[in-house]
Nucleoid-associated protein (Uliginosibacterium silvisoli), 338 residues
Amino acid sequence: MVSSTLSEQSINDLVVHKLIKDQHGPASIALRAGTSPITASAQRLIDDISQHYADKLGKGYGKFEEDETNFPMPRLIREHVLEGRMDFATLARQMMEHLRDRVDAEQLASGGYVLIARSRNSLSDQLLVAMITEAMGTAITDSLEIIDSPHLDFANLRVAGRIDLQAWQAGAERYISFLKGRAEVAQYFKLFLGCNDVVIALKETQKLVKTLNHFADTQGLEQGARDELMQRAHGYLDELGESSTPLSLGEVAEKVWPDAPQRLNDALNEESVDLASGFVPDRRAIRPLVRFKANAPQWKLEFDRASLRSGAVVYDRRSDTVILSNIPAELKRALLEE
């Protein structure tokens, strides 16, 4: 997916339209004539939205649905990006018409400003769609009067998604991300994007295990603290896997690293990790959290981390050897026969 280095983004095209809808009411759209100029303010807006999007927890991931009749987004994207038969203003207008139809069927949905932008950085070419609402704040005038001042409410960004156009063209397994948020919001917006969720539990669990190991490395944990972290992670994820309960990355951070959950939360939600939320952990893939496994041409070895603490397994750094204690009788007999 997209690098989190937002300062390197360059906006190619940008349009801001408006979706008008009250809860339980019909939807309509107010369209801007043509694209928006790429100004310093526009760049700052894209950077702010991208940063808030990156910081949001609980994203869904997927790829385009194959049914382009009911899910026209891949056709629209293809006509704009690959075939060049549709300019960006037309693409954004047709996207808004499709969004209106999806929102109209969702009673609890509400409207806002809809920003559609295509931007690039060193790693990707992406299409961003975000709906932003206004909030009332306070400002002080030049004459020192206190007045109400509306502003864009980035903190409550709930409806947004990105399509990695480069990954899409390369045939990646998944190239769409979206905020999961409230179920009804996530559902209509996912349908608008034409996104077929792709959450492969085994691969996501393997990525989670790798991220936990990387986190332990970056925290400079002593062996005992590292083992405790891994034991807590294994215990919690194993419970979820046994009960077929989807995980929340925020809850993983709270359970696994309760002394400083925000640090682990930041690591799990780093965009370069590209880790989904809401999958059921694969119990096979969490074994490396509490077990070491290695092999060479002439041997194989597997043992629990707890063996290092108990002394049943000792690694001698000076001689670069592993010493095993409490050898079972059958292994002794086999060794003595050699």
Observations:
- The first helix runs from residue 40 to 55.
- The chain has a mean pLDDT of 86.
- The longest strand covers residues 10-21.
